[in-house]
Design brief:
By secondary structure, this protein is α+β, with helices and mostly antiparallel strands. It folds into 5 domains: 50 residues; 151 residues, no CATH class; 113 residues, Carboxypeptidase-like, regulatory domain (Immunoglobulin-like, Sandwich), CATH 2.60.40.1120; 109 residues, Immunoglobulin-like; 123 residues, Immunoglobulin-like. It has 7 helices and 41 strands. The strands form 12 sheets. Strands 2, 7, 8, 12 and 15 form a 5-stranded antiparallel sheet that branches. A 5-stranded mixed sheet has the order 4-3-5-11-9, with no helix packed on it. A hairpin with a 7-residue loop joins strand 37 and strand 38. Helix 1 runs antiparallel to helix 7. It starts with a helix and ends in a 6-residue tail after the last helix.
């Protein structure tokens, strides 16, 4: 009987130990540092920004792309560890998000191995003179870059380099795909924009003219026949077209139903110069492409806008729409950059809450429709305490044709029907573009769609631009997990939650994840968008305590300290180890005491009934 009791006792203790522990794993993940790089100079003939120095291209340096003298710039970044290889990455604003490349498949694979998953635009020509990656021999890298694509005009640049290896040890497996380490200011996280080749626009309304046909003719005014170049394009919603051609002489032939070309200067509303132009030089000396002028391209993509005159005399009008948009977090801050292009020049752009309709920031697009703003996540509207409201875009059109017209002229135009009367509300277009918040910190529970916590769920952070996994961890026995700021991406991301017995993930946007944890966030006064508790940075505040779960398994986990947010998924803390050890010691002590009492009663008293 004594042996049987001992066996039962230690069997029970063993079951408790198995319940307390999941297999401990140690997985090595690479870390990498990533910095924004602001162009230090543009090379002739592609200079356009008065705030960026313009340099003659060094004759001793080979062009990154042979035979192309345009879209070349100089990048300079300092503060890099001496002798460190730094992969230079170019990103373009394409398909409503960033598309990034390091130049070729081999280099892209090397960058991806560090943890930064790339999703290149196949039309993006990106190259580094001397090869990628350059080496920071003295802690500084200066490199000549070529970056061009016919699909977009906005370019941003980053430096990515390897950090030290990281070993993750925990009560549940965690896999780190990459750790961001930043030390820089927001002014370096900017985009450069090179012009598209041209736009068609209405001479009366001065609005962009979509769905026009533009033919590219050679120097003999014959339809261009060069392999790989489509000589006939249809203009986009912003009237844009782009022919990416080698040096030579060309002509443009536009056509649109109900319009005529060529036009005289007097046919064009005098305000056209506020938004439309042609690049002027000794070879191309005209302010607008209103006649079939020869366009001479010599080491530079020439921008030329084409006016088309409506035969009816009534100008074409439309509401502004989104051409492209993107967002990215500014490193080492709670600031997010929002940028995009709208179809109409000089449009007023407002970001407002999707549900709350609270206005957060307002700006004016430039003459090409580009806009860019920086917004502190502290100013994001909330649908509930701790639950950030995604942002949408509202556009207010600027009537270019009426900017300088007198009140009398505008009234005559309205009466004659040439310019329909437009009240402010008719100029406003709210877009179905949704900017999900880029959370700076994540803490909460992995829930299924029914709202039940998922014990030991697998959580993946995935990049929106590529679908690549950035970080992976496992929730504890109560479904609790947290992800610290250094493990979260710079670009837009979403969360996948997968139950242990499932292969189908539950996908959450960042706002949906916060909404699922609304009770927990409100109770603990957490703001995931700013990584704060009670408006204090999360790591300066005292550790929070997770709410007591209602399930028996959750209650046991909470009592054992496994549900404490301070012990985040993927790391068994010393406190947990001490607590578990103490509980085991008390269980053994109780077992020993019980055994002692049993033996004493057996010795001193009558036999116990079986």
């Amino acid at each position: 009987m004594k042996k049987l009791l001992f066996v039962l006792l230690f069997f029970a203790v063993g079951l408790i130990i198995l319940a307390l522990y999941r297999p401990v794993s140690a997985q090595a993940g690479s870390t990498y540092s990533m910095v924004c790089i602001k162009p230090s100079a543009l090379y002739k003939p592609s200079c356009y920004d008065p705030n960026v120095p313009c340099l003659d291209y060094p004759p001793t340096v080979a062009l990154p792309i042979s035979g192309r003298d345009d879209h070349n710039l100089q990048l300079k970044v300092s503060g890099i560890p001496k002798g460190q290889k730094v992969y230079l990455v170019g990103c373009t604003q394409t398909n409503n998000d960033f598309k990034c490349t390091a130049g070729d498949a081999t280099t892209n694979a090397a960058v991806a191995a560090l943890g930064f998953n790339l999703s290149p635009d196949p039309t993006h020509e990106f190259a580094v003179a001397g090869g990628n990656p350059p080496v920071a021999t003295d802690g500084t890298i200066t490199a000549n870059i070529h970056s061009s694509t016919p699909n977009g005009t906005a370019h941003a640049f980053y430096g990515v380099y390897a950090g030290s290896s990281l070993t993750i040890v925990g009560n549940a497996s965690s896999l780190q795909y990459g750790t961001f380490q930043f030390n820089q200011d927001a002014s370096k996280c900017v985009s450069i924009r090179w012009d598209p080749e041209g736009r068609t626009f209405d001479t009366v309304s001065l609005e962009p003219l979509p769905n026009a046909t533009v033919k590219l003719l050679d120097g003999q005014k014959q339809l261009l026949a060069i392999a790989g170049i489509n000589p006939v394009l249809t203009t986009l919603v912003n009237g844009a077209f782009s022919f990416f051609v080698p040096n030579g002489t060309y002509y443009l032939e536009p056509q649109a139903a109900g319009y005529q070309f060529p036009v005289t200067a007097s046919d064009i509303n005098a305000n056209y110069a506020k938004a439309y132009s042609c690049d002027q030089s000794l070879l191309n000396n005209y302010s607008i492409y209103n006649q079939p002028y020869p366009i001479v391209e010599q080491n530079k993509v020439v921008h030329c806008d084409i006016p088309l005159k409506p035969i009816s005399g009534i100008g074409y009008r439309s509401l502004p729409v989104t051409v492209t948009y993107e967002q990215s977090a500014i490193p080492n801050s709670t600031v997010t950059k929002y940028a995009g292009q709208v179809s109409h020049p000089l449009t007023t752009v407002t970001l407002l809450g999707q549900t709350t309709r609270i206005q957060t920031v307002k700006t004016t697009a430039d003459k090409f429709g580009f806009w860019e703003v920086l917004l502190d996540n502290k100013k994001l509207p909330e649908t509930l305490p701790g639950v950030p409201d995604p942002l949408i875009i509202s556009y207010t059109k600027n009537d270019l044709a009426a900017v300088t017209a007198s009140f009398f002229d505008r009234m005559i135009a309205r009466i004659s029907g040439d310019v329909p009367f437009l009240v402010e509300a008719q100029n406003i277009s709210t877009q179905a573009v949704v900017f999900e918040p880029i959370l700076k910190y994540i803490e909460g529970y992995a829930y299924d769609k029914a709202g039940a916590a998922i014990p030991f769920a697998t959580i993946k952070v995935k990049l929106k631009m590529s679908g690549g996994s950035q970080y992976q961890t496992t929730a504890d026995a109560a479904g609790f997990f947290k992800i610290e700021p250094q493990y979260l991406p710079l670009f837009s991301y979403y969360i996948e939650v997968t139950a242990p017995n499932s292969t189908v993930p539950i996908v959450y946007t960042t706002s949906q994840l916060a909404a699922a944890n609304k009770t927990y966030l409100a109770k603990n006064k957490l703001n995931l968008a700013t990584a704060t508790k009670n408006n204090v940075p999360i790591y300066a505040a005292a550790p929070t305590t997770a709410p007591a779960p209602t399930s028996a398994a959750g209650f046991m986990a909470n009592q054992l300290g496994k549900n404490n947010p301070a012990a985040f998924a993927g790391e068994t803390t010393k406190a947990n180890m001490i607590l578990v050890g103490l509980i085991l010691f008390l269980l053994l002590l109780a077992a020993g005491g019980g055994l002692y009492v049993y033996l004493k009663k057996k010795k001193d008293g009558p036999p116990l009934p079986l």
